[in-house]
Amino acid sequence: MIRRFEEEAARNYAKGKIGGFLHLYIGQEAIAVAAAESLEDRDCIFQTYRDHGIALARGMSAKTAMAELFGKDTGCSRGLGGSMHLFDVQKNFLGGWAIVGGHLALAAGTAFKSKYAGEDGVTICFFGEGSTNIGGFHEAMSLAGLWKLPIVFVCENNQYAMGTPLERTSPLKDLSIKAKGYAMARDHFEGHDVEVVRERIAAALDRARTGGGPTFIEIETYRFRGHSMSDPAKYRSRTEVEQHKQLDPLTVLRERLLGLGVDEGSLDDIDLAVDEEIDAAVRFADESEPAREEVMMSSVLAEEGDS
Amino acid sequence: MRELHYREALREAMLEEMERDDRVFLMGEEVGHYQGAYKVSEGLLEKLGERRVIDTPIAEAGFAGVGIGAAMVGLRPIIEFMTWNFSFVAFDQIISNAAKVHQMSAGAIQVPIVFRGPNGAARQVAAQHSHSVAPFYAHIPGLYVIQPSTPRDAKGLLKSAIRSNNPVVFLEGETLYGAKGEVPDEGTEELIPIGQSRLARPGADCTIVTWGRPYHTVLAAAEKLATEGIDCEVIDPRTLRPLDTAPMVRSIQKTNRCLVVHEHWPYGGPGAEIVDRLQREAFDYLDAPIGRVTALDVAMPYALNLEDKVLPTEEWVIDAVKRVNYVK
Asked: Structural domain tally of chain A?
């Protein structure tokens, strides 16, 4: 569903129905899906601006998400957030954040709350490998390590910080080594097999939930599209992209299921149902009322009283 | 009413609110075991324990962000910056996160947090430690900005700030911590509403709007001017966002003259904002252009003789009042 949602988002961006920045998750889907499978309802989730995948995996409806991209009142943030700022507070999906490295400390903050209040909720925080060079990353890791906060930091290493490959932004090949500097558990693996990702993330979540402190996980992945819709991705070769597509997480899973004897027809039925759901989401977004000025004016500040 | 130091008034506000509400905690550098770099939090660790009074490493962006995240899920943090000069490395957290998430989540997420600490130049601490930061933060929708001048306002406004459902930038005068003033007796709870100006001195001849450290300079200058037959009315906005200009307009209707005095640089900021609003809201009552006394437009020098030339003095205020009143 994430794949189809993103493809349809790209199409509607080209049509001018979606504006601003649009960062697609195509190629990285196994990570969001595996994480969502492993999390409890009470756990908090933070993500960067590449946030459609985890929002949908957590259970936001395609309609609500697409309407937000279209800037409509029916969107999850009523058209005030857009693609980069999806929120679903009821599901503890606490946002899409668009300043690189800026949301890691917030995630440490919700983990801090769990510890302060004696609750067993865990926070999971996603970010790209580009974030690991900015101060916000180090300060959040430092505090999480110091206070042994119940948090899992997931670095989705899609190889490019916008257009700059990892070897030109980091002296390390294995970024998970950085965890050592914060006395934090670490893990590092490839992210194209949803089952592997689920097992490894679940282990880190379990560690956090049982008082074992934070984990820094680096997951090697690849985005098949550019950084955002305005990026033609000229910094990498077609051959490189095609090689990575051999490990498309959707293909890997489909082949696994077929190998296990799942009927191909039933997989096609799922594809059809998803197509219908995404088509309905686009229709809903298109037909919804535009974002409202009253909501903008009344949401600058929270109401006072009942503190 | 009893007298308290400004720092004691702040400490009482925090202690009372933390005893009242377990969701409130204090976090910052040296707030606990060191007893506060400026002794504002002295004794709080012993009374409330390490769970509520939390020392941090030197990582302003980190612990400001932790506070914001904790506030997003229901806690009510007080984040102390050892001085507001150090808030610049946490600027992104305050501007991009604390001030924005309520609106960009269409009101789904509140951030009830107070950022507080000493603000403004002290003595000979030079360019990087002498910022008066209100203009930076007062520009931002989604924040409250409070800059109390007296112990009573410090206590009553900090209590309101802690109970607010919005992010508050609370600017304490570094040179005011030792100032004494009347504060309501113990057991008398006073919550001063955010966004209300206060008439500090009644007068007939010239309205002076001022806050923070220059408030005291202005009151002293007003006494001297009174002996020369110029009777100043002094109004302290106390809160710079939101700004309560109605009492200023009423005052100008009486005095027909106005001077704004602040320790910020002259370019832009709340001083310029106040002048703009008053010239529009009280235009028909003004007999002279509104005057402004500000810090000199330079980085703060170290040398004492030069530092004395940078911040508003009684002489500057007296001189400016006379110019606004056309007696000089």
From this structure: 1
